[in-house]
């Protein structure tokens, strides 16, 4: 049997996280190592390793994931001032967890998008 990702263990509540939202498709929780005052991960409940593994069958789920990201931004009160949504992919994208997720970052001016 395949080993569960750390995010699957959070989704199934085997390990703790500050879960803000969950439905049958996605789960949103605070990042353990926040890079901004607001840093939330919106994760697909099913394990999709990278954005490269997205297929046409995932389109509705990912549209929904965007809607949940906006809902989280509104809930955190950062929708009007703005925020950033990021999906990292593989080594050059500095992806750490191979379970599809989107970062929602905000609560301050985020500066330039890519440094170095
Ligand atoms: P990636 O680099 O894969 O796009 O981002 C993975 C994110 O997951 C990182 O920002 C990291 O801080 C976060 N993360 C890793 N392990 C955990 C964990 O156990 N709990 C939570 N809440 N976030 C985690």
TrEMBL record:
Residues 6-116 form the HIT domain. It comes from the Bacteria. The keyword Repeat does not apply. CDD domains: PKCI_related. The keyword 4Fe-4S does not apply. The active site is at 101 (tele-amp-histidine intermediate). Keywords: Hydrolase. A motif (Histidine triad motif) lies at residues 99-103. It holds the Pfam family HIT. One of its GO terms (molecular function) is hydrolase activity. This is HIT family hydrolase, diadenosine tetraphosphate hydrolase. It comes from secondary endosymbiont of Heteropsylla cubana.
